[in-house]
Amino acid sequence: MNPRHHATEEMVGLAEVAVPLGIHHTFTYRVPKELQEDCHPGCRVLVPFGRRHLIGVVVETRFGDDDSGLKELSRVLESSPVLSERLVRLGTWLSWYYLAPLGEVFRVMLPPGLLAKKASPNGSGGAFWPAKTRMAVVSTALDNETDLTPRQSEVIEFIQQRQLPLLISDLTRLTGTSSSVWKSLEKKGLIAVEKIDVNRSPWTYSDTSEPEKHSLSAEQSQTLKVLLDRLERDRFDSLLIHGVTASGKTEIYLNAIAEAIKQGKTALVLVPEIGLTPQISRRFRNWFGDEVAILHSGLSEGERFDQWNLIRQGKARVVVGTRSAVFAPLTNLGLIVVDEEHDSSYKQSDQPRYNGRDIAIKRGQLEDALVVLGSATPQLETYHNAVAKGVPEYLHLGSRILDRPLPTVHIVDMRTEFEKRGKATSVSELLEESVRNRLDRKEQTLILLNRRGYASSVLCRSCGHTETCNNCSISMTYHQYSDRLSCHYCGYSRTVPVECSECGKQYVHFVGEGTEKVQEILRELFPAANIDRLDRDCVQRRGGYERILGGVARGETDILVGTQMIAKGHDFPGVTLVGVLGADQGLRLADFRSAERTFQLLTQVAGRAGRGERPGEVVIQTYYPNHYSLRYACGQDFKNFAEQELSFRRKFRYPPFTALANIVVQRRELEKAWSIAEAVSSQLTACRRELSDSSRMRVLGPAPAAIEKLKNDFRVQILLKTTDRKELHDVLQRTFSTLRAEKVDLRRVSIDIDPVDLM
Fold it and tell me: How confident is the model at residue 164 (pLDDT cuts 50, 70, 90)?
């Protein structure tokens, strides 16, 4: 324990412990004298909680007056903390900022299983400690008198020819023998079977080649110089690198990390998607070898624990990962990079609803580290803060590497296409001709449609009924590969009806197109082409990303159809054409960010074309060709798009000119949802009158959420909008403290600070 003052004989050791439940306060436990030496903030401890035991995290230790009413802490589970002092402070801040229970925050910060909600009195709770694996070695020399069966002799000979130790599982598999054979050999003393720690490595390849390093352009060199200057200051700084697609941001990151390592520091690199992790981590591993660890949800729980443990032990000094990797237990952290900082996947959709980009900035402050945000299409809040306030510092890369030109962009008005053909079509004449030219030249094409499945809905042409999910107020999507209707929100599926469930007539019709349908259309148009697809349905099995993207990288795939997954960060030199179908579909969403997201998606996917020696071309198909987000995306004109969009945001008081909090009440009974929402809204209004002013803060709602029913729950929404962020937190803290004191049932009430999705 680290007491704030010396203890007297009358004083006892106390620990504040956060448990992994939806509780917004810590619990005080007495620390027995024999445990005080090992009990420190950040340690996991076993504590009695009601009639059960829980594993919690110590937040604070102190000495205090004897209180016989306190329960005693049962065990300290590690000799050293699993969370450093700075990570405990980061978790505490996250809990305050996002109004999330601290125990739930710590559970997210640690590998799965380390903070189990159930634990036995001996402290076991599903933690994935280093795996013990059975290995075989030959323990004695054989002589001619040894009595062996032919199968036993075969196994011994096999072992003698192999490098030891040898996995027992490999031994039985490669020799085609059962476990009884090696067990008999073990009994005869001819082999020894031992259990040793094994690192469950996620790496599926080894690369011993020299790192691929490129000469930096003048722009890159100048940007790197700024990074290195800030890195040497050994204090918190933040930079925004706003670089057009293919401007070489990753090469700058690599050089900066190399310098950080030379200085004895560690580095953290965040990427938005699991699909980007293998490609980027390979490049980082090529530079930094075994000092690179990866953390993302695509790993098995054992692999994730082992990678985390390598980082904790100081054996990995560079970490590459998705959102939750921001909590990696790195020490002496000098550099944090958030690549594609604008991406919405940095925001966690469930409790605790943190944004990985913002947590990276806060961690940089706590660690005195340099934080670098990078994007070709920065989030408007980040861009505005950088340009108007100078925090983060703004750096611009306006040219592609090797002075390669930006792709030529064409907008196809699909209204004209309809008039010309007399029917709706998925692929315009220009796009079809452009794809055919690429096939003739042995070049590659990406086709983006940000909607998976075969048909977006099933409609009855007789009565107009649309097949909707039984659990959600959402139309169901038809998937041809499974021949079923599926809900993309709750996962419910059912067979395709032969007749309308409303009127009983057999006029069922598929409406709208998804990536499955587009892939089918392209196969009809280009039967000799190798056409693959990348969407959530294609990557359910492990290795799906790498298989599909590997085919493109090796030049085996002529055309890749996909959702927004194909738009982010991929570098395929053979791709010279990008086609965008339904470019305007995101503009129809009732969300103030819809224009920004459309601009970002189009700019990012357009940037996949022409990254090699051959120039690129982009064909954007739309029914709204004059919308400013499309027009500015054509020229990758972020500056003018930002000016127009920020003018709209300022006028209607949206971020970055206000702070938002989205409160959603969910209940199975509609009346109950409304009753609780009205109680929350009433208390918010009362606290706003006391702590703020209607000119600065508005309480909007309650109102039905855009998706009114989700997973069998009715959803009612309240939105807080304010120009004073401190008042936002004050009002929310006071409101929910009061409601909890009044015993209002808040179990299904979510609070989302700085929401990126208002649906």
Answer: low
This prediction has a pTM of: 0.90
Distance of CA 335 to CAs 248, 319, 653, 714, Å? 18, 11, 34, 44
pLDDT at residue 200 tops 80: no
Question: Where does the pLDDT of residue 204 fall: very low under 50, low under 70, confident under 90, or very high at 90 and above?
Answer: low
Looking at the chain, the whole-number percentage of residues with pLDDT higher than 70 is 92
pLDDT for 288 equals 94
Say if residue 680 is in the same domain as residue 645.
no
Same domain, 569 and 552: yes
Encode 414-433: b = buried (16+ Cβ within 10 Å), e = exposed: beebeeeeeeebbbbebbbe
Residue 123 in any domain: the answer is: no
Q: What is the H or E stretch that residue 562 is in?
A: strand 559-562
Closest CA to 186 of 146, 139, 141, 142: 139
Phi first, then psi, for residue 604 (nearest 5°) are -65, -45
Q: Which two tokens stand for residue 646?
A: 């920020």
Contact of 579 with 621, CB cutoff 8 Å: yes
Say if residue 589's pLDDT is above 60: yes
Joined together, the tokens standing for residue 63 give 């000495």
How many whole angstroms separate alpha carbon 35 and alpha carbon 309?
Answer: 24
Number of C-beta neighbours around residue 669 at 10 A: 10
φ, ψ at 60 (rounded to 5°): -155, 145
pLDDT surpassing 70 at residue 702: yes
- One-letter identity of residue 15: A
Give the mean model confidence (pLDDT) for residues 603-620. 93
Angle between the N-to-C axes of helices 168-175 and 150-160, in degrees from 0 to 180, rounded to the nearest 10: 120
Task: Tell me the torsion sign for CA atoms 222, 224, 227, 229.
Answer: negative
Amino acid at 74: S
Tell whether 396 and 412 lie within a shared domain.
Answer: no
Confidence of residue 128 (pLDDT cuts 50, 70, 90): very low
The number of folded domains in the chain is 6
Contact 483, 454 (CB under 8 A): no
Spell out the SS3 assignment of 476-492.
CEEECCCCEEECCCCCC
The whole domain housing 673 covers: 659-753
Residues 461 and 566 placed together within one structural domain of the fold: no
Q: Which residues of 670-700 are buried (b: 16+ CB within 10 A; e: fewer)?
A: eebbbbbbebbbebbbebbeebbeeeebbbe
Residue 132: other Cβ atoms inside 10 A: 11
Q: Please report the beta strands in 139-265, taking only residues with DSSP state E, as ranges in sequence order.
A: 166-167, 191-198, 237-243
Peptide bond into 352 cis (omega under 30): yes
- Give the integer Cα–Cα distance in Å for 40 and 22: 23
